[in-house]
Fold each of these.
Amino acid sequence: MAATTVSPHGIVRVPHWHLTPPGTASGIGSVADRGPVAVPDARQRFALGGLSRSLHFLRHQGDVLFADAVRAGERDDGVLRYALRGAPRPIAVLYRPDHIKQLMTADEAITPSSTRLSPLAPIVGPDSVLTAVGERHRQQRALLLPRFHGKAVAAYQASIERATEAGLRAWPTGTPVPLTGIAQQITLEVIMSAIFGIADPSEVTPAEKSMGAAILRLMRLSSTPLGTMTQVINMRSSRPLGLLKLTLALVDRTIYRVLAERRAAGDHDSRDDIMALLLSAQTADGEPLSDSEIRDELMTLLLAGHETTSNTVAWMFERLTRNPAVYAQAREAARDGDDAYIEALVNETMRVRPVVPFVGRELLAPFDFGGHRVPAGHTALVSILLLHHRDDLYAQPFDFRPERFLGVRPNPHELMPFGGGVRRCLGAPLAVAELQTVAREILRRVQLRTHDRPGETPRYSNVTMIPARGGLVYAESID
Ligand code: HEM
């Protein structure tokens, strides 16, 4: 990777990691291969100090982390430390598999998830499986887990295929279209049908329909500059403020309307969808869940369940259109029914462009990561992005090469797009089923025009890393 440079005015310029040419080593995890590296002195670091450094980190975190990890290669203890203005705790960034394993297998009582401190907390609320910790989290996860595994996911396959078919039908040809838009409609329909048990989209009630539309509006806000500002305003608050408060009030109104409709129907004992499950569930004290507890859970599943998946689809085709040889091979694999290649393609996409680039744990006790002591009170952030670009794990890590995963069962602390440990993504099997189906169908049926523009810039929005232009593609023809 190109070295960091420093301007005569002391501004640290870091290269854009996503534009690193193929065949290049990252310099992370392979000190010997690294070229000369500029180590900025205190004056240069000061140039990015305080609030401006924090904002810079928010907007360009990938570039900053790559540059800092390459510099730290001199020590290579695999821990980067930051104190960012506005962040609730000092941060220790981990990117070595042994440190990550140590964190992910530690007692959860001293390493609870830091999601309650994340920008998602004011949106999903305090009573969601994403933000809850300890016993409450265990109970909610145990309640929901069967709906996202094994047979349940196989049952969602029909709705994945139906939604994909509708998405392809509505895709205009000959004009540039951001793939996130198409994929969001697909993933929203799939998660709505899982939650509400909708077998046929024409059965959606007006209340459910306006809830879907309100959720899409919320998603669109989060990927605009206004959304970034909203994120900064809400950074230290557990309750929504400003524009977010207003937008959420509209979404909540639609969710409560749907809830009232379902309670009035009173048919949850005879249904097996997620909404029915939540309506019949009881707390540890034998009380039914309150409307606001159910709202937090629904909001979590609706948000976690579709922005991540749709942006992964967008990144997949953003990468494929920049790598024509891989694109041709993937099309052939889809036409030949080569599922192993499609699986490898999904893994490689999530390796090079993990849509959730970090997962966090609060450290309630001091930790020693290979001799680097991190005091209690820090947030340990696993940089999935850096981990996935280590030279010692992935040769030429910036190359897009699905075949590196053929016949390989990835180690859970080396490839972790879904996080890990007891908080590993609840919806991972559903997401993988969606990604494989959507990829296969687009590859088989859509001829995308490739173009030679540089890769799309990653935009960091809430806790995600998404393609700045939404994975802009031209469909020449659709079968
Ligand atoms: C490509 C798609 C997806 C990616 C990359 C992704 C990634 C993640 C990550 C990194 C975490 C945090 C794990 C940790 O802290 O270790 C997470 C948590 C979670 N995800 Fe996903 N996710 C995806 C799709 C989904 C889907 C389809 C659902 C289903 C509704 C879902 C529901 C959840 C939930 C409920 C949690 C919280 C789990 C807990 O704290 O126990 N996700 N996801």
Amino acid sequence: MHITYIHISYIYMSYGSYKNDFPKVSELRPKIEFFIDREMELRKLRTLVKSKNKILLVGLRGYGKTSLLVKFLDILEKEEKEIGIYVNCLRIYSGADLLLEVKNDIEKLDILEDKRVVEELEILAKLITNPKDALDNVFKKLSEIGTRVLIFDEISTMVQRFALQKPFRGAGGSRAVAAHLKSLIEAYDFSIIFSDTSISSLHELFEDYTSPLFRVFDTKIIIEPLSLQATLEFVRKLLGIKHVSLGEEEQLLISEFSGGVPQYIKMITALIDREMDKEEIMRVIDRDMEQGFLNEYFTALLDKFPWNEQEVLFAIAKGLERFSEINNQVINAAQALESLVRKNMVVRVRKSKKDVRYLIRDRLFKTWLSLQETPRYRKLSLRRAKLYSLGLEAMTREIFLTLEKSVLIRDALGREISINPTREVRRYEGALGEIDLIATTVKDETYIGEIYGGITCKKEKIDQLLRNIHIAEEMGYRNIRGLLITYFEPPEETIEYAKELVSSGVDIYILTYDQLKMISKYSRIRIW
Ligand SMILES: Nc1ncnc2c1ncn2[C@@H]1O[C@H](COP(=O)(O)OP(=O)(O)OP(=O)(O)O)[C@@H](O)[C@H]1O
Ligand SMILES: [Mg+2]
């Protein structure tokens, strides 16, 4: 009894600290207190909307689709004095809901003076019950008031709900809804943005050639995580609001855990309620992943997948990457993997005909999976999970693993090196020591890397790299090129030291964020 009480109160407490952070279903347009980055996406939306494009916006859960759209409408209204309407489809259950929701959004527009349409929509909502007529009238009214863009956020939800109602029900269901939407999109000449979290639903609606909406769209925008710099800015901002100050390395650690996903940045920073060192930060994250809100969040996320996809996700998270390995563990693995790839949860990497591998895109989710104890797999520690799947180090290995063509770059010392696709990439940990990166390339070179995940890369890291090279030679690797990989520009001292070594004939390079970014352009895993 006592234990139950503690458990409940713990969850309640941790929920308390989040409750203002989550977009509520009951909200119209969520309010944006501050907005970080997304400059490129905002610019793109502006240009596309100006030329009346039909746009598809895709992004995993919590990546910031809704925030981006609402911010965009803000700018559109304030700077261009244009009308944009936002519909949160999660709130729409019926035709009347749609009419009322559009009315609510119009009511809040500052630039529209003549609000007669508000009353008209209210009356229509009383008269119209079916979703088809509601859609017709919404498009018509919006066109009359000179709307520039209409946004349907979480569109697949609305399509599925409308499909079950007359006249769509019995007349083709979601196909009929899609066909009707297509006719409206083509009849009116304002811009439309459809956004959704479920990539497979979007795919079914817009990219499956049998769907009526196939190719109705001009552009697809994919939302990626925020960049490392933007993530750091976000973390600082959130900490500032709470008057908590953390050191730079600690801020970087939080960013690393978040993977640049806005929702995760918020959830993790919410755990920091006072000054903490790295050890403490790891501890609170570990605890939350085990019994706090992060655990609740990922349990719910896992629940959304059918059981055989869950089994595959566990297998990958526990370290099985190759198709052959996964297929040994899971019945019908091929089908589950294909579905996970379509949902964008998993990336397929084809190294050769016989060597196909799978990576889980969402690193924090992968980490949570690896922390679970299951009958078949051991629980990993957070520290190991971070090393192998979560942090910048793991990302770097994934970039090398999924590189698809050779990239010529100039390193931080000003030397040119061609980074070639790899056959095998791994981390070594054994009797001889530890090496962060061992990558053998298709040209039979071996990249030996020391990856530094902190901010100030001291010259000792170069000594560490030299030791790694030495170990690799003992292990029998030949044709070695040493890479010191650090995310921030190293201090002058480190550069000088490396230059001296190079001039005495040592073949080492220093790669920083810029070089990795170049490489990741040709790789399946994007740097964030
Ligand atoms: N660029 C940003 N600047 C500041 N906060 C952001 C930004 N992007 C997202 N957020 C915050 O991160 C959280 C998740 O963002 P949002 O709800 O926009 O994501 P989403 O992709 O719409 O998620 P879902 O799939 O759950 O609808 C929100 O609390 C939001 O305020
Ligand atoms: Mg959203």
Amino acid sequence: MAFDLEAGLQGKSVLLTGATGGIGREVALAFGSVGARVAAVDIDADRVTALVDEMEGGPHLALPYDVRPVAGHTALVEQVIDAFGTLDILVQTAAVLVRRPSVFEVSEDDWDFQHDINLKASFFLAQAAARCMRDQGTGGRIINFTSQGWQSGGYGGSVAYAATKGGIVSMTRGLARSLAPDKITVNAVSPGAVDTAMMRSGMDDAAMAGVAAQIPLGHLAKPSQLAGTVLFLGSDHADYITGATINISGGWLMY
Ligand SMILES: NC(=O)c1ccc[n+]([C@@H]2O[C@H](COP(=O)([O-])OP(=O)(O)OC[C@H]3O[C@@H](n4cnc5c(N)ncnc54)[C@H](O)[C@@H]3O)[C@@H](O)[C@H]2O)c1
């Protein structure tokens, strides 16, 4: 049997958060290149529009939006349906990381900021998307982003971030079980260290080299090295995978 690289992705409708981030951007470009249509969500309107203008295929949709007001999530999904007719795949990369020097310097605001974006918004947008996927009767894919921190627990001042990412793994498993009868699969991608603005925040070159030295493959991931796994999870090749957390860490963690 010929191996179909598009694997059902052509013409699929994708809602992608964090679309102009390091990893999100590569995911958007990759979906565009296989003929999917992408509704790109991120905070900065100019950046979202520039991304959509750059993408192959389409037409795509620029949706500047801060994911925190969860009351707006249903309307966000409706805009995708109005533009594309269906919603087939939700990919949630939007997240923030606040690194503090130690656990003792993590404030309540730090906790709420990271939980509101990384975990709370991810749950409610998944809920809004799943409602739509259930009602359209064709199933769907939800792909969440966790982090190696879900497993390690983070370090010092990044424990609050790690807790949001632990929540993503638990939530992914619970949603996978709950939504399976509606033919909606839910999986998580778990990057190790990826060379993006988030990874570099608060890290100097020596700290970055220290991270690279712990990785068996010897270097941080390029953001594009995450995109293929997201496409795979959205494709026909992954139609029997649900509740999984895919470790993409160059061997930094092994599980
Ligand atoms: N870079 C890494 O090493 C690494 C490691 C583990 C996990 N991750 C995860 O991968 C995902 C992508 O990370 P990245 O490295 O590309 O980060 P990034 O900072 O480059 O991109 C994150 C994007 O999310 C957007 N965003 C933040 N808050 C938002 C909000 N309230 N509403 C809408 N958009 C918002 C940002 O504007 C940004 O474009 C994240 O979930 C992150 O936790 C990254």
